[in-house]
Design a protein that fits this description.
Blueprint: E1 4-5, H1 9-20, H2 24-45, E2 61-66, E3 71-81, E4 90-92, H3 93-98, E5 109-113, H4 118-150, E6 156-165, E7 168-174, E8 181-186, E9 202-212, E10 218-223, H5 227-237, H6 239-242, E11 246-254, E12 265-272, H7 279-284, H8 289-297, E13 302-307, H9 312-319, E14 327-332, E15 337-342, H10 347-351, H11 356-365, E16 368-373, H12 379-427
Parallel strand pairs: 3-4, 8-10, 12-13, 15-16
Antiparallel strand pairs: 1-3, 2-3, 3-5, 6-7, 6-9, 7-8, 9-10, 11-12, 14-15
Length: 428
């Protein structure tokens, strides 16, 4: 078999592998693809017969790299036919038999050496494949970086501000594969209002998603507003969480409130199975030292740490902290609606500025919370109202069930009629 020599191929592979931090097999794969692309361009340029080369015309061609002998061969997989109409894809049965393939049959495939002459192709191969090789190596590197970051989805990374594009901040995060930094996008909706995104400033960011881009390779979407960032910061700062003595049950975060007059705020519910451990105290730390680290990283965001409880009423009362709750009435456990009764001086605190406190408490607990002034609360009237609503809801459900039951009965009757008709026909 003929071979196009590539002096220094072994050293080239070693150098690229070391410089770009890529496995040798990945470098060899990139070189093979580049040489194949070079052969395709060579054939298109040398198209003296004016053949029509479709996009998939060269799919049956391949390059075999010989690292030890520092060269390569081009091979083509051809189908055995009686009469050849396309010599790139087909070979005559008689020709195969003349080459020693006595047992060859029509329709079988054979792999043949189609390597061009060294003089014709050697110099052109080097020129044509240089640019393609650089692109293929970049693609290999991007793919490995993408695979690395896909494993890191849902974790927190250190990022540095590079530049600004429209309303997004383009940041750099570190990668262990060749490229010291990989670009990530921090969209406007994922930014914190109190952050100062000046050039080269560093932030902890939550990696939300990794997707393959059209041209630029891996596209990293990072966030400063995701609740996962709060969970990470607490887990990193509170040893009891890392040791699984304290667990974070739920988080509700409003990093970008609907009004600029309301600041970012988070409620986090924690619990423990160890009676000797105070989960809230563990997260806050001595004189608030632990929670202050989290607050500083989030640029002053308000954080309420509350105790989770299996009792919904207790959990809801805790979630409305710092307001003092007098009574929690679970009006409809099925639809999870509740009335929370507070003193008049606690109303505004329980609701919060522009409803933020009760909104976060509802998201944290999963209950629809209605804050009521205890002094003006009509127990009998509210009970009657909910009883009527409940009865109406039950009636609607029953009617729906009856309709389904009637439909099923109709289907059964229809099937019985058909069965009887068939029997009558058989008897006749």
């Amino acid at each position: 078999m003929s071979m196009v020599t590539l002096p220094g191929l072994k050293d080239l592979i070693e150098n690229i592998s070391r410089e770009r931090n890529l496995p040798r097999i990945a470098v060899q794969s990139a070189i093979r693809e580049a040489l194949l692309k070079g052969y395709e361009r060579y054939r298109r340029a040398q198209n003296l017969e004016r053949k029509q080369f479709d996009e998939d015309y060269f799919e049956n061609f391949d390059v075999q790299l010989d690292v030890d002998d520092e060269g390569f061969r081009v091979v083509a997989t051809k189908t055995i036919v009686e009469e050849v109409t396309n010599s790139d894809h087909e070979i005559a049965l008689q020709q195969v038999q003349d080459m020693g393939g006595d047992e060859a049959q029509l329709g079988q495939e054979v792999v043949l050496d189609v390597t061009p002459d060294q003089g014709e192709f050697g110099r052109m191969a080097a020129m044509q494949t240089k640019q393609v090789l650089a692109q293929k190596l970049r693609d290999q590197q991007r793919q490995m970086v993408q695979e690395e970051f896909q494993d890191l989805e849902g974790t927190v990374l250190q990022a540095r501000v590079l530049r600004f594009e429209r309303q997004s901040v383009i940041m750099a995060v570190s990668s262990s594969f060749g490229q010291p930094e990989v670009e990530a996008e921090l969209p406007k909706r994922e930014q914190l209002p109190n952050d100062n995104y000046r050039a080269n400033a560093t932030f902890k960011v939550y990696l939300k998603k990794v997707s393959q881009g059209q041209q630029r390779g891996p596209q990293l979407l990072v966030s400063r507003a995701d609740a996962g960032l709060v969970v990470y910061l607490f887990a990193n700062e509170v040893p009891e969480i890392e040791d699984e003595v304290v667990r974070i049950v739920a988080v509700a975060r409003e990093a970008n409130p609907p009004s600029r007059h309301v600041g970012p705020r988070t409620k986090i519910a924690v619990d423990t199975l160890d009676r000797d451990v105070d989960p809230v105290g563990a997260c806050i730390g001595a004189r608030g030292s632990r929670i202050q680290v989290v607050v500083n990283e989030l640029r002053g965001e308000k954080i309420d740490v509350i105790r989770w409880s299996p009792d919904p009423a207790t959990y809801i009362a805790n979630a409305l902290s710092p307001a003092r709750v007098d009574e929690v009435r679970l009006m409809d456990p099925e639809t999870r609606q509740t009335h929370v009764l507070v003193a008049e001086d606690q109303l505004s605190l329980a609701i919060g500025k522009e409803g933020q406190n009760v909104r976060l408490a509802a998201r944290l607990t999963g209950w629809k919370i209605d804050i009521k002034d205890k002094a003006k609360y009509d127990y009998a009237g509210e009970d009657t109202k909910f009883a009527a609503a409940r009865a109406k809801y039950t009636l609607e459900v029953d009617d729906s069930d009856e309709e389904e039951f009637d439909d099923e009965n109709q289907e059964e009757l229809f099937e019985e009629e058909i069965f009887e008709d068939n029997n009558n026909d058989d008897q006749e």
